[in-house]
Amino acid sequence: MSQTTQPKKPKSLPSGFIIKLGKFIWSTMWHTMMSQLAPRSKSGEYVRPSSQFRNSVSNLSESAYKPELNRYRLYVGLGCPWAHRALVTRAIKGLEDAIQVSIVYPSGDTGAWVLQQAEEGCQTVPELYQLAQPGYQGRCTVPVLWDTQTKTIVNNESAEIIVILNSEFNEFAKNSSLDLYPEEIREKIDIWNEKIYDAVNNGVYRCGFAQTQTAYIEACNELFTMLDEIDANLATNRYLCGEQVTLADVRLFTTLFRFDVVYYSLFKCNRRRIQDYENLGNYLRDLYQLPGVADTCDLASVQRDYYGNLFPLNPGGIIPSSPDMSYLLTPHHREKLH
Hints:
alpha+beta, Glutaredoxin, 2 domains, six-stranded mixed beta sheet, 10 helices, 6 strands
C-alpha cells in the first residue's frame, strides 16, 4: 500500500515583529554608518567637509614649493571623480613625464585608501597624512599632490590641484601652449564651476547620501534643473565657455562619465541618463575623445569602488555587469559648432 505524501506548507514571510525589529536595527545602523561616511545637516542633507591642505606650487620667491621635474607625485583613486580631475588635466597638458602617479584603492573594511605598495614608509593614505602632519584628525581624501622632497602634502583640494597643473609646470608640459584657465574668460569659468559644483559635482552625492526624503528631492531637483541648463548652453557652444575646452569642462566631465554607470542607479539620479540628453551625450563623447582622456577612464574601478565599497548604499556588495561603453567612441559632431 502506498503512502500519501502530505504537501509541504509554504514558508510564510517573516512575522510583523521580525520585520519591524529588522527595520529598526538596519535603520539605526544605516544612520550611524552614514554619519561617518557622509556628514549631514539637521535636515538630512549631505555636507561635504572642506579640504585642509591648500598650498600651491609657484616660482615666486616666497613659495616653498617650486615647480621641478619629478619632484611631485599625485596619489589618486581611479574610481574617484575628484582625483580623476587631476588625471585628466595631467593628460591634456601632457605632464605624464613630469609628475608621477600612484594609484590607491579603497578598503571596504577600513574605509581608507590603500597603497598598492609601500611608499614613503606608508601603506595607506591616512599614514601619508600623518607623515605630512603628525596628529592630523581630518578626512584622508584623494587626490593628494605630494612633495617628495619635503615629504609633505602640498594640496588635497582637487579644484586647486588642477589649476596648479594647468599653469605651474608649463616648462615640462608637452602641451604648454594650451591654457585651460585663460585670464580673458576666467570669470565665466568660475561662474560655471560654482554652479556646477553644488548642483552636479556634489549634487549627485547630495542625492545618494541624502538621509531624508526632503533632502533627496531638493538635491534631485537642483541636479536635473542644472543639467537642463547645461544642455541648453551646449546647443550653441561646443564647450561650456565657448570654443575652447577649459577647467570647467574637466570638472564636469568626471561626473558625467560616472553618471549613467553609477549615479543613475546607486545614487538614485534616475530621472534621465546623460546619453539621452540632446547635447550632453555628444558633449561627453567629445571630451572623452580628447587625446589622452580615455586612458584616464577606468570603468571597472568606478563600478568596483562605488558598488563594492559603499556598504550603506549597497549592502550586498553586488557589482552590476559592465555596460557597453563603446558609444563614447562614436562620432559626436560637436566640431560643427565652431
